[in-house]
Design goal:
With 332 residues, the chain is α+β, with helices and mostly antiparallel strands. Helix content is 50%, strand content 9%. The protein has 2 domains: 79 residues, Phosphatidylinositol 3-kinase Catalytic Subunit, Chain A, domain 1 (Ubiquitin-like (UB roll)); 233 residues, no CATH class. It contains 9 helices and 6 strands. The strands form 2 sheets. A 4-stranded mixed beta sheet has the order 2-1-4-3, with helices on one face. A two-stranded antiparallel ribbon has the order 5-6. The protein is elongated, with a radius of gyration of 24 Å. About 8% of the residues have low confidence.
Amino acid sequence: MKVVVKHVKSGKTQCTLDGLEPDSTISDVKRRYHAQMPAKYPDRQQWKTGQDRKDKPLKNEVTLDSLRIGDSGILYFKDLGPQIGWTTVFLTEYAGPLLVYLPFFFRLPFIYGQDGKSFPVSVVVNVAAACWVLHYAKRLLETIFVHRFSHATMPIANIFKVAHAQTVDTRPIFSAVRNRVATLAFQNSGYYWGFAAFVAYFVNHPLYTPAMYGIVQVYTGLALFIVCEIGNLSTHITLRNLRPQGTKKRKIPYPDSNPFSMLFSLVSCPNYTYEVGAWLGFTIMTQSFPALLFTLAGLGQMTQWALGKHRNYRKEFEKYPRGRKAIIPFVL
């Protein structure tokens, strides 16, 4: 079986792929095309059955036989451009706040002056730094060992489309929305890094004043932070187990044996609920107005994401539990 490859825009014939079988998939086509065009690795390839914009890109698992294109059929190729891995995107996003926070914690002279280190350091300042490092170290490790991305890469060109990022959904249905998610990931880097400096400057300031209610308030906030961090990790593991490695299979998330997963019975996105709870705990612990602003900004952004996910769950799964809210139990 042969496949004639034409460019999706110009319609010009590029090459012919030989040796394919009716049960060959688009993944096989990508590999065969890559063998002829080494610069066009599979992640930057997109295939369609026609030139019309309404023609949907073909999924990797689609077989040639199911397309009914015949023994010498035509497929249209689009070059998505150089790609960057999603893992790299998120590692960059999460490493930044760690690197930004630490110079403030160590009270480097270029931030607080030569006398900055001469002021006493409150216990809560050390605890807050430990919590900050723990949170972003957890995120880095989750990116490497826990998260499974439905798309391994995104076009590098999307980095420069930040101005077009509007409404987003991290588990999108439409490719246009997926591109906006990509741009927001890089926009988030500025958001995280900027807030890291804002929060760190005041929490680590030589004149920082500890919480009004002392150690009780600190430990209350710390307890909430730790519980929510564990809950957030537990939720990510639950979501990971829904999708076997190497597949794009999707299921309705339900609580499992882990007690922290019980929040799935109330909201569609408990990972966001726990995330906001962790930063609320950090805010209570430090009694810091910048930390409160960071928490509220995160709540606003994650609410937007959660509402999008919630809508998609309800569209995709006919039997999706109707009693669930998006992010705040019984409310939103």
